[in-house]
Every structure is written in C-alpha cells, then in structure tokens.
Specification:
CATH superfamily of the largest domain in chain A: Bira Bifunctional Protein, Domain 2
Strand content of chain A: 15-25%
Number of strands of chain A: 19
Structural class of chain A: alpha+beta
CATH architecture of the largest domain in chain A: 2-Layer Sandwich
CATH class of the largest domain in chain A: Alpha Beta
Shape of chain A: elongated
Largest interface: A-B, 100 and 100 residues
Oligomer: homodimer
Mean pLDDT of chain A: 93
Radius of gyration of chain A: 27 Å
Number of helices of chain A: 14
Low-confidence stretches of chain A: none
CATH topology of the largest domain in chain A: BirA Bifunctional Protein, domain 2
Strand order of the largest sheet of chain A: 1-5-6-14-11-10-7-9-8
Chain lengths: 437, 437
Amino acid sequence: MTRPTPLSGFPEWLPEQRLAEQQVLDRLRRTFELYGFSPLETRAVEPLDQLLRKGETSKEVYTLRRLQATDDDADELSLGLHFDLTVPFARYVLENAGKLQFPFRRYQIQKVWRGERPAAGRYREFLQADIDIVDRDTLPSHYEAEIPLVIGDALRALPIPPVTILVNNRKLCEGFYRGLGIEDPEEILRIVDKLDKVGPSVVKDEIAQKHGEARADACLALAGISAQDASFVDEVRKLGVEHPLLDEGVAELAAVVETAREHSPGLVRATLKIARGLDYYTGTVYETELAGFEQFGSICSGGRYDNLASAGKDVFPGVGISIGVSRLLGLLFKADALSVSRPVPTAVLVALWSEEERAVSNRIAASLRARGIATEVAPAPAKLGKQIRHAERRGIPFVWFPANGENPDQVKDIRSGEQVDAEGWAPPAEDIAPTLR
Amino acid sequence: MTRPTPLSGFPEWLPEQRLAEQQVLDRLRRTFELYGFSPLETRAVEPLDQLLRKGETSKEVYTLRRLQATDDDADELSLGLHFDLTVPFARYVLENAGKLQFPFRRYQIQKVWRGERPAAGRYREFLQADIDIVDRDTLPSHYEAEIPLVIGDALRALPIPPVTILVNNRKLCEGFYRGLGIEDPEEILRIVDKLDKVGPSVVKDEIAQKHGEARADACLALAGISAQDASFVDEVRKLGVEHPLLDEGVAELAAVVETAREHSPGLVRATLKIARGLDYYTGTVYETELAGFEQFGSICSGGRYDNLASAGKDVFPGVGISIGVSRLLGLLFKADALSVSRPVPTAVLVALWSEEERAVSNRIAASLRARGIATEVAPAPAKLGKQIRHAERRGIPFVWFPANGENPDQVKDIRSGEQVDAEGWAPPAEDIAPTLR
C-alpha cells in the first residue's frame, strides 16, 4: 500500500489538535447542561425526501448506496447524510413527540456532510454544536432572548477572542418590505443577504430595477441600522414605514437586545442587515462575529423556525443556534490562537528497570491512576536517558523512578529537572490534565 | 408532512437514554485517558479501495454519491463510510507517521456504518469506542497484556454486570494446525469460528472430511481448552503437537493471562476456541462476555494486527480493542439494566411570578449556574402548582421560589415536599448531576 494522502474537504486533526477540540466540546457541553439542555444524538442518515424538503443546501446532499445492493433493494428507502442538525432534530421531535416533555431543550454535537466543491475553509464533513428549544403549539419569544445568553456563556468559557452576536428579526424585515408595498419579501431578503459580498450599490441597483429607487434606498437604510440597545427602534421608526408585522418584529428584537444588555452587556448587537440563507427561519435570526476573524464570516448562526416540525395539526415551533466547531477551530489553529498545555493526557511516565520488573511499574501506575493521575509505563527497559527522552518527546511532564537498591521511589519534573522523593508527591493542580490556552 | 417513523437498523435513543450513553462515554474516556490514550477522530469516509482492502465486512460498505453530481465529477474519488475504526486508524497512522510519537496510543469514539440486512440487535449505524496502541517496526507483546487491563477498568467503572475477557492467540492456533500438517490454517480458523453457532459435531465433520478424524479431534480438543491462568499451557502440551509458532503463541497468551491474573484477578480467561472473523489479526485476539448476556455474543472485541498499517518498508504493528457501545446499551436498555437517576441535567427550576419579573428569575438562575448548578427558568408565570408540575414532568428535583412580598427566596424538594429558605442552600451532592445506575 502506498502512503495515503488527505482528502480535500474532509479535515482531520493531529492528536494535540483533537485534544484541544475535545476540551472545547467539554466546555460547551458543560455550559449547555448548566442551562438545562439535554444531550441528544440523531442518526446520521435521513430519508432523501426529508432532506430535500427545505433549504438551499438540499442540492449538496450526499446519498448512500450499499455496495452490494441488488435489484431486491430497489424498494429500499433512498437515504442521504444529514447536512445540518436542525432538520433531523425537527424530524426527531415529530417522531417522538409523545415521549418528550415540552418545552424540550436539547444540545447536539455531531458531524454533518455537504457535498460542496471544496474551497478554502469550506468543508465537506464538519462538526456542529447545536442548541434548540422547541415547544408544542406556541413558543414564547423569551426563548429567542435566552439563546444568545447561552452561547455567550459557552463561547466566553473558551480562551478565544471575544464574540459579538448579531441579531435581526425576519418579521421586522418582512413587515418593512410589505409596508413598502413589496409583495415578495423573500426576494429582497435574498438580495440584502449578499450585501457584505457585493456591496451596497449592487444591492441598491438590484432592488431599484424592480421596485424603484425610493424603495431600494429604504431597504438599504434599514440594512444600515445597528445598535447594542433598543435605540434601533427609533431609527426604524424614522424611516416612516408601517406594517403590523414590522411592529411585532421590532418588539421581539428589542426584547432580545435588552435582555442581553441586562444579563450579558456587550454580547449582542441588533444588526438589521443579517438575513441568513436558509429559508426556514420565521423570527429572530443570529450570526456571530469573532473579533479579529470577522472576514471569515459567522462562526455560530441560527434563528427561530415556526414551521419546520409539523405534522397535520401538530406544530412544534423552535429556536436554535449552531456553532460551526470545525470551522471555528480550523481558523484558530491556522492562526495559532488555540492550543493545549501538553499534547497528551498522560501526566506521569513510570520508568522500567527491567522487563521482569514490569509488574512493579504497573502497580505504581495503577495506584497513580486510582488517584486520578493519568499514567503510562515506559515501553521498554531502555537506558534511563532514553526513557526520559521518550517522556519528553511524548510531552509527558513527570517521570517516576521505582525504588532501586537503596534509592527510594523518586519523581522527576523533566521540564525543570527537579527530582524529589515520590512519597506524598502529587502533580501540581495545573499539571493534572492538559488545559486549553 | 406526515409523522415520521423509525428507520430499521438506525437506532436513536430517547433523551434519558442518550443521557445514560453520554455518561457511559464520559466514564470510558476517563479510564482511557488515565492510561494515557489520546482522543482522536478520523473522517467518516475513506476511499473505497482502502475499505475493500481487508476483512469480510467489505461487502457491507455504504458508498457515497453527491446528489447533484455531474459528469465533471466522474473522476472524483469513490468514497464509502467506514465500517470500523481500525482500518481508518491504520490509514491515519500511515498518513501522519512523521507527526506522531511512537508507541502511539489513541482512543476513538465514533459511529460506524454497515449496510447489512437489518436483524434483531444488528445495526446499520452504531457507536464504537476503540483503543489502540501502534508502534513503528516492532510492537512489544506486553501491550497485548495491557489492553485487557484498560478495558477491565473501563467496563468495571460502569454499573453493569461483570465482564470476562476471553483471549486467544492466532499464532498458537496457526502453529498448532501447521504442527498437525495442515497447510491452510485460515480455513480451520474459519470453521472453528462457527463452533458456538453450529456445535462440535458439525465442526468435527467439516475438518475431518478434508484432514481426517485424528486431526479434527485434535483441533476440537484445542478449541475446548479454557483457563484463567497459565495452566492451559500444560493442556496444550498434552496434545503432543509441536511447531515454533505454537511455542510463540503459547508464551504470549500465557503472559496476557498471567498479567491479568496479577493486576485484575478474574478478568481474563484463555479460551482457545476464540477465532474472530476479521482476517487482519496476527497475534492475541479478544472477545468479551457480559454476565447474563452471554447469548448475545461479544460486547468488546479486538486483537493484534501486524500488517494493517504498512507502506513500503514502513510498518506499524498495532493492538486494539473495540467496545460495541450501541449494541451494549441496546441490550442493557432492553433489559432495564441501565438508567440515569433523573432524565435531564437540570437540578433547579426557578419559578416565575410574572413575565415582567423574568429578569429577577434569570439572575437567580445565573447565580446558581455560576456555582455549577444546572438551572432553568419556568416557561411561563403560570399558577405555582402548574410550575411545580412542569418541574415534576421534566424530572427536575428542586423548584426555587424568588422572594415575594414578605416571603424570602425558598427552595422546594418536589420529591419530599420539603421547603426551606434558599439562603445558603445547595443541592445534596448526589443531586447535582444525574448519575448512572
């Protein structure tokens, strides 16, 4: 077999990067659970008709086929890999509604797949960490204000640059466009969504062509509004457009911004140009900027969806947000902005005097593990220098020498070279486990 | 949309089952890390030629295709979902050998996919938890003795019935069959592998047909040997077969059994009928029985492989084992033998007097979370009885009532009905987080 090479679009981390990722996930989980979100996983596959029901990403679905499929299998359901965690979650809620307690809050950390053309920073397989709250029939809008608080706490628990959550409201935009007399607000949303990419003059021209210059100016003026408090309300009012849906959206967005201002100052900014690509959002929408990495786009996005989970007269409106973990870590690793204090879980390497005495070293390792200290035994009874170098290469900070002749058990910190009697020794708190930095 | 139904072969847990699974995985990880295994993940897909290189499961591979694939994509690599974690790990080691430190120890907890016909207890998507140790050029056989110790600790940390790890050695069997003058030992291994399924007389007939009755008797006698210590060595010797490979295998198996007997009495049993289906094993092989669930087969299997990771003159022999997490949990859930102490992470529900006072309840929740206590705020300012019933239905043990008029903040244990002043209150240690039982 020849040496394999990476597959474009399918990132894999080196062990110390995966260790960092694992610690990031543990901290996210910790915050999600503190807010009462339950862990959940759905299968990786969905029937194709589920996946193609909604959203622009449907064209990027990977379909599955058994290699040894025969004609008998022709009637097998067509399956595809999920491209996000929201569509499968909505399906799960419908399928298990009778066994769930509502409002139901869950977090879900899983890989998703999109068969896009690989490009810089665009993955075909990547990890997402989602939180969602769904309720039966109606979902109070205070949950739209809670989601940013959870994400703020979760991301602030990481040693990464500060984040700003940009918030808008679909009703606000739709109401505004309708108030202007525009009948297809979705079309305007799609045009405004490209604002950062193509610039205001292209957006203005595109809207003006069909709806006239005055309306185009109004849409651009709305998209230009941004504030960290409810002061955006006056700015919207000044544009002089009226529609009941606009009022609803303005009130909901004001509540999100004000709740965040009270509980987590500086976290949230009403940003009225935010549109989100997916078409299932019906209320608040979120995007998230990482300071210093704004040009790479949102690292955490979501919104409220009223119609994603419904069957007959059962409706389960929800609100959620998704952290693009692979994308976020890809950016941070590339910028050397996130790492771990050591590359392995192991704190102690127990040295080995001879292969015959392996049981002695094994017993020392077992007693350290029983105290919660991650320990390995040396691979071979090599010369002591070689055993120490092995620890050094692996990034293990301490080497334990079993008693030998008149020498009692001793422990060496191979970073400082300091060597002490092992009796009563314990690693300093900061060396017990690798930590993020 | 109509209500969706489950997909046969693609299991999904209810929230409280997933909470149990999550806790199982956390404990496994904890043990693996205590032994110095690093977390690792590989992508879910491999080039088809990698997947078809080895092993009987190759016929069960799921292949991928982009839904919108065009003729331009014809030259795209054929990809399939991995069917185990050993083949991808071997590929990862070859690909990244220059960046890894050897011996390299990693654990890997991921879904795998097999396009088998669904049957009771046979999944098409399931979770595996693997540990492996690989070295460059040669791998000392003491690692074959270490693997059962790790798994023993990991499984004994769970509130499940006791396990016995059954161990055999491919060299022992191959040497024995060759010593009998049989030229294709693989064939005999495949026949003996069916022993528990088809019974000894069928196995004997099948071997006798080609190799004569005396050899068939010898093979069956070997398969009948089983011992928790090195006493199996004498029983093998008594069969009077000689071959250098047999001696090597006997010595290695004796070392595995004796190491286990010293460090973890009762854990390991030399069981010479164990063969393992996959053809990449070259030394020790493992299977694991769960007391009371023996008829469902092995819950944790693996072995040593010398030739799985090699490119040109680079060889990376390894040894590993895989816990079939989905299968294990499926069995335990079905038998009501594993559950969690409560169905949600949340310990406290903060009641809500009015929607206007939500900020007050939010602040109480925030201060509880800052103390590491998982907390939710009530969905709506309903009557107090209704808020308490909401906590009950969700399985949340405590309700916190914010100060109201002359009443100070109070906390109610809704299981006992006991209500106390909240000042200085903390949940009992056993109620802070849900625990496995």
